[in-house]
Specification:
Blueprint (H helix, E strand, L loop, with lengths): L1 H17 L2 H5 L4 H16 L5 E2 H8 L3 H13 L3 E5 L7 E5 L1 H22 L4 H32 L3
Antiparallel strand pairs: 1-3, 2-3
Helix pairs in contact: 3-5, 3-6, 4-5
Length: 158
């Protein structure tokens, strides 16, 4: 029975993943959105620290060449600027432009508006239940990952 529940859950997740939200909503590619969002997050959390390519690559667990390719596209669109690091001219610092900020807000507003429209198909009680169930599933998955990591650590003991 447990396998069937897992299969049903995976099937609906797969269906949702196959929805072409990017095309339907005319969103920027996820790789670009991830980089812009990470740049903004870092700039907001540590405004005195320059945002570097290597920091973005490490934070997103993406190879530096892949980050550079995406940054090239973002620079062509004028969403970012690359600046030489004053302290070490070999390093490149990244700066989100006003156009980049606008692109993030526009994409997020499109997604939020779409979700609001989709949620109109559910009652307030159903939305509350769905939210609670997603929270519960998140906590269960987090606990399961922690347990697996703990088991892995314990298996290495003598």
């Amino acid at each position: 029975m447990n396998g069937d529940r897992g299969n049903r859950f995976l099937a609906i997740l797969h269906k949702m993943k196959r929805l072409d939200l990017q095309g339907a909503l005319n969103l920027m590619p996820p790789s670009e959105m991830m980089l812009l969002s990470e740049m903004r997050r870092r700039a907001q959390q540590q405004p005195e620290q320059p945002v570097k390519v290597s920091d973005i690559a490490k934070a997103l667990d993406i190879s530096p060449p892949a980050v550079s390719r995406t940054l090239n596209r973002l620079e062509e669109k004028r969403y970012i600027e690359r600046l030489a690091d004053r302290g070490d001219r070999r390093n490149v610092c990244l700066k989100l432009t006003a156009a980049g900020e606008d692109a993030i807000h526009e994409n997020m507003n499109k997604v939020k508006s779409f979700l609001e429209d989709a949620l109109l198909y559910l009652s307030d009680d159903e939305i509350a239940q769905l939210t609670a169930l997603f929270e519960k599933m998140y906590e269960a998955m987090k606990a399961q990952i922690n347990k697996m990591e703990q088991d892995k650590e314990n298996s290495g003991l003598c």
